[in-house]
Amino acid sequence: MRKTTSRIVTAAAPLALASTLVACGSSSDASAPLSNAGNASSAKHPEWSKYTFTIGDNGGDGSQELAKVTGVFDNAPYKVKFARFTYGPPLVQAAASGDIDLGSVGDVPPITGAAKEYGFKIVAVNRSLTPDQAVENIIVPKGSKLRTAADLKGKRIAVPQGSSAHGLALNALKSVGLGPKDAKLVFLDPAAAATAFNTGKVDAWSIWNPQSAIAVKNGARILVKGLPPIDQTSSYYVATDKSLKDRTKRAALTDVLKRLSREYAWAIKHPDQYAKALSKEQGIPLADAKASLAAYSNRVTPVEKSDIELEQKLADVFLESGQITKKVDVASITDNLLPAGYDSSELTFD
Q: In sequence order, what E strands does 129-261 have?
């Protein structure tokens, strides 16, 4: 997922990234039904043993904890590490530089990264199984007099620059005939935005879960839901060009992605354990994790034509509103790692 918590430390440079890497732990627990999933690839691809893949995560979507619980990488012929980011743009930059090999981000970071001519590709979609569940919202403080998106005119909106929430803010304004110049976009990282929101320094906050859900629980109100047609509910996997151009490494990276798809397929069938994984990664109460579980129900699929069209439309909005200065051709930064028709929702493992 694209979301994050205040516990995550930004990894925007190699040295910072190194401090965030955590080796994936093996699981010998009886609740590890996927631990034998990689035996075939281990036997067939001994050449992969030289690789250590770093998986970037900007959302605390449970992937690292799920890897431990399911043991999905235990028998992989390569090593895996995880790196955490505060939000998407630094993750895309790390993918482009090769500091990570694969990472999941929201809909906007690939656009802003491409506008800066970073060397990466979109390789898969983490597709929402509950597209009617918003994973981010524009929220206002308790007692706010703002009632509709049109009321944002002239107001201060806290936004993580270059993130999916940035796209939500732009599209919400556009939906009522406004542009970024009609409101004051205050670019703040999630932690700083939370402080600004709680102290009344901004009038609204475009942000994802669990921050949005927690703020609402504490009295804030949702002004604009992050739902189609103004927002996407799925996220995208990106990978570095360098790895994708290496045939052997590309094949191994495809195996990494398929294993991730297996753990998510398992998680959907084991919601209680998935909630525990989310709670631990995000540092939130188990009850809050269970309440937001629907928004984290995803399956990994290839990038489809409709995804490219949605991303292109969003890229054009960013260009028209002056948020980027270079036109982005989304099709040219798309390179599917998964075969057509691949659907992890059909996989069974126990």
A: 136-140, 156-159, 184-187, 204-208, 221-225, 235-240
